[in-house]
Write a structure and sequence with these properties.
Blueprint: H1 10-18, H2 31-46, H3 52-58, H4 64-80, H5 86-91
């Protein structure tokens, strides 16, 4: 919109964008950055250098501690019924 509240024409829009700068700040929540940080956290969990709760928190999951409590309870229920949870069955553990 211009100063009069009317939509910009193509020339005005190009002129306005010529002076506008887009900057990505380090540590921003850009999708690629979040994905890569999540992959790094997964790798850290696999080598024992980070907790699963840290990994879930990095992934932006709400209440990672509660999520893990529910997962542990469900895992115990599977085991007590004589079943392996789907992911454990796939990995052969």
């Amino acid at each position: 919109m211009n100063d009069d509240g009317e939509p910009l024409n193509e020339t005005e829009r190009r002129e306005a964008l010529k002076w506008h700068r887009f900057i990505i700040q380090p540590g921003s929540s850009m999708a690629g950055t979040r994905l890569r940080r999540g992959q790094i956290m997964r790798d850290l969990v696999l080598i024992g250098a980070a907790s699963r709760e840290d990994m879930l928190a990095e992934g932006g999951f709400p209440n990672p501690g509660e999520m893990l409590k529910r997962a542990k309870k469900e895992f115990a229920e599977y085991q007590s019924a004589g079943f392996m949870p789907p992911a454990a069955a796939k990995s052969g553990s």
